[in-house]
Queue: 2 jobs
Job 1
Amino acid sequence: MEFQNGQIINKQRFPSPNPAIELSVVTYHANGLHIKGLLAEPKGEELYDGFLYLRGGIKNVGKVRPSRIVQFACEGFIVFAPFYRGNQGGDGNEDFAGEDRQDAFAAFTLLQERARVKRVHIFGFSRGGVMALLTAIEFPEAASIVTWGGVSDMFLTYVERKDLRRMMKRVIGGTPTKFPERYKYRTPLFRLEQLEAPVLIIHGEQDHNVSVEHSYRLEKRLKALKKEVGSWYFPEYTHYFPPAVNRKTVEDLSAWMKSNG
């Protein structure tokens, strides 16, 4: 049987921490692979904007958390968060914003084709920032993009994160010096001319996981291209915001999406 990208192959109910939100683990098709992800839908028949949640990390680091997905669904979105290939029973292997970007592209299509979804916004956290920008470049009809503590430059990640170099060399196939084209392929800064959607950048300036320099470079490039971009920098925070600030930021970025998309 032939499947289309973004087509749902299987959907299983998952316990939800909120009775108003229905959670499902979904298996969907992405370029010949069966990928898993988490879908959160407010109960009822009402139409909502779609929210593509692109996680950070790799493998078991930065896994999709149901409580986080439900948090965004409670702001009035139908949320889908792909686990990326090779994770939690999905086919294939993650390659850190290489071909696994196809998992995000197919997830965008999955949301577009939900009957109750009006338009689709893209959100990326940490490594998901690169995924969000690449997806928005691929789908110019995206309503808006938010990148929170997001990677924008894979060369810079290699330089800054000595602890990730071994993984990056293994997954990407070598160093940026040896294979610059592979790192360029994973760096959306080189293709921002193709971006149409408004962008909001959120970053803690004390972030040691993804330095704020990633966001500075992204904002500078977008402004040079006269793209629509806003930024919320938090001088006192790291990669992870305190719970109360985190909740308020979620509310604020959700409102921004709905008003700017």
Job 2
Amino acid sequence: MIKRIKHSLEYLIDKSSRNKTSQAEENLLQNFALSEYQNAKWDQALMGNSDEVSKNIYDGIQLRIVKKKTINPYIKYMAAASILFLAGLAFFYKPITANEKQLSFKTSDIPKSIKLSDGSKIYLAANSLFQYPEKFNGDQRKVVLLKGNAFFEIAKDKKHPFIITSGEIKTRVVGTSFHIQMSKTKCEVIVVTGKVNVSSKGQSVDLIPNEEALFESQKLTKQLADKSFLVNWYNTDVTLNQTTLKQVITILQYKYGVSFQYDNEQVLAVPLTVFIKKDAALENVLEQINYITNLKFKVYGETVKVD
């Protein structure tokens, strides 16, 4: 579509330079330039003084015209496009997010946190991978959760929405806190504070605190969040007092990015009290559980089994 518009614009500008356009075509060009001017955004800190840039472009084009003494259609198009560039930045000056230097943040066996350039803080679970720009530019703050789970505390900025891509879904916020959990079969977004929009494949849901969006089998649904996920495990020590083993396992799966395998599901109802230090290794937490329950949980890569 953009290619078609560009070719049509080039054709009209060339036609206008030869005084071959009709009044309707001239009006179309003028209306386009006016519309782009009204919607244009000029970032002087990033792009310099607009008057100086305009003069440099115009002088450079004029110099080429004098040297060649003739104006071929391409040069005429560039001359007209340069004026429209300054009058209609929104059309000719694409967001510079493509030029943002991308960084990766990866965790191994324990969760870690990182602070982004806008002040947002990301708490990454173990065995997770997160991609983000060194510095946010453009109209949106875009990041990607490539693997695992994370808790987001997003700095408020209404003019620059924060957008997280995780698998096949996009989560859009302004300033709020929420979890994103990814696995091979599903992705969940759980809101703790503020409002969040989650979308995928033409589907969209809005969430408020204690609500969850679940994307599974290509379907996006909204439901109440499991209270286990609302525990503040990400930046403080946690004591789970007289909690069922099932709830403890739910938190450990999220915090350490592992799955649990067991044959006897009856043990999941066993009540226990467990202390989880924020930077504790999974093996240390499992030692507590094994001592209390007389079970033998053991880590095999990203899977925990009962021997």
